[in-house]
């Protein structure tokens, strides 16, 4: 059940945390706090919540939203394949693996060397194909949302191993396909093609 006071308290906590991390200034903090105090509806809560989360994203803060999706910070690393084919090796920058868009094209993404901790890879396939090749020493967590699409993935790999780097794959497949393979599977397929 929606509790307006509880929602306001949560927003104030998030806002205070941003101020304590120097993500926002005192003036911004006071202005948004004034908005929070005037909230009367769930729609207003959603608007302020979105504004607070955008501050996190702009400052490369990875934040988890309530439905357990992972938000991705903005980055200059965007790769678009439109009516073409592209192969890219992923590098993690502050927990961000980049954003890959396949629009009537194909992205092959190779992930073989990640630092410890969580790296978020944002993939969107619209009438296209995205193929993600991951080495066996990386924990895969698939959070992709399919819409009239196919997501082909092994079960979440190495889920119990807490010591391995984590690859969170987020995004959408809309009339497109996203395939996640282990490096071993990929090499086996390539070996069979050569026969």
Rounded to the nearest angstrom, the distance between the terminal CA atoms is: 61 Å
* Portion in strands: 25-35%
Q: N-to-C SSE series?
A: HHHEEEEEEEEEEH
Summed up, the helix count is 4
Q: Structural class, from secondary structure content?
A: alpha/beta
Largest sheet: 5 strands, parallel
Low-confidence parts lasting 5 or more residues at pLDDT below 50? 60-75
| Shape call | elongated
Instruction: Return the average pLDDT rounded to an integer.
Output: 79
If you had to describe this structure to a student in words, what would you say it looks like?
The longest helix has 17 residues, at 4-20. The termini are far apart. The protein has two domains: 4-58, no CATH class; 78-183, no CATH class. Helix 1 packs antiparallel against helix 2 (26-38) and helix 1 packs parallel to helix 3. The radius of gyration is 20 Å and the shape is elongated. The chain has helices at residues 4-20, 26-38, 42-58, 183-194, and strands at residues 78-82, 85-89, 96-103, 106-111, 118-126, 129-134, 139-147, 150-152, 166-174, 177-182. It has 195 residues and is of the alpha/beta class.
Summary tags:
elongated; 30% helix; 5-stranded parallel beta sheet; 195 residues
Structure summarized in a few sentences:
The protein is an alpha/beta fold and 195 residues long. Helices cover 30% and strands 34% of the residues.
Walk me through the topology:
Elements: H1 4-20, H2 26-38, H3 42-58, E1 78-82, E2 85-89, E3 96-103, E4 106-111, E5 118-126, E6 129-134, E7 139-147, E8 150-152, E9 166-174, E10 177-182, H4 183-194
Parallel strand pairs: 1-3, 2-4, 3-5, 4-6, 5-9, 6-10, 7-9, 8-10
